[in-house]
Amino acid sequence: MVFAPDTEVALRSVVNLINSAANGREDLGSQKDLDAFLAAEQFSGSRARDEAELSSVRRLRGELAGAWVAGEEAAVQIINRLLRDANALPQLVRHDGWDWHLHATAPEAPLADRISTEAAMALADVVRSKEMDRLRVCEAEDCDAAVLDLSRNRSKRYCDTGNCANRAHVAAYRARQAAAG
Fold first, then answer.
1. Pick from 151, 169, 51, 70: which is nearest to 111 by CA?
2. Angle at Cα 147 formed by Cα 3 and Cα 172, nearest 5°?
3. Do 147 and 138 contact (CB within 8 A), yes or no?
4. Which of 25, 69, 73, 107 has its CA at a distance of 20 to 30 angstroms from the CA of residue 120?
5. What's the rounded Cα separation, in Å, for the pair 121 and 92?
6. Rounded Cα–Cα distance for residues 85 and 102 (Å)
7. Residue 43 neighbours by CB under 8 Å, 6+ apart
8. Measured between alpha carbons, how far is 147 from 18 in angstroms, rounded to an integer?
C-alpha cells in the first residue's frame, strides 16, 4: 500500500471522475449518470439534484484533470484553492461501514465541495509523499484517460477505461512478428 486506504479510495474516485470525460465521452450527462457515479463511488451526504450541482461536478472534473497532469507547484496551488474554497476543516469520521477516515467538509456541504475536498486531501497526500509520478495519462496514442499507478514497481502505463493495454500488447506482438518474418 502506497497511501492510507481512504487516500487510495479518493484517488480512484478522482480517476473515475476525470475519466468520465476521457476520449471525448460524457458519462455525466444527466442526474441519473451522476447518481450512478456517486453510488459506484459510495459517496454519501446531501444532494441538491439540480442542474447547478451537475454543472459544478463537471467543472470540478476539469479542475482535477488539470491538477492530475500539473507539476508539483501548480498542483499545490490547485489543491490549496480547492480546500480554501470549500472552507475545509479536517475531522475524523466513521460512517456507512467505513472505519475512521478524514472528511474535511460537513455532509450538508454542496456536493462539488465535498468531492473537491476529498480529492484535494488525497492529492495533498500525493504531493507530501513526493509521489506525483504515480499520477499519469494513459500511454495509448488514442487515449487521454487518467492513470493512477499504485503498483509496487511503478509500471502501470495504461488506463482502465477500455482495452488500451491489450491493444498495445497486440500491436507490439504483431510488430515483432512482422520484423521476424
1. 51
2. 130
3. yes
4. 25
5. 13
6. 18
7. 13, 114, 115
8. 10
Instruction: Note down pLDDT in tens along the chain; length 181 residues.
Output: 689 999 999 999 999 999 999 999 999 999 999 999 999 999 999 999 999 999 999 999 999 999 999 999 999 999 999 999 999 998 888 988 889 888 899 889 999 999 999 999 999 999 999 999 999 999 999 999 999 999 999 999 999 987 999 999 998 899 999 999 8
* For the chain, the helix, strand and coil percentages under 3-state DSSP, each to the nearest 5: 55, 10, 35
Enter the pTM of the model: 0.90
Terminal-residue alpha carbon distance, the chain: 44
Residue 54, classed as helix, strand or coil, is helix
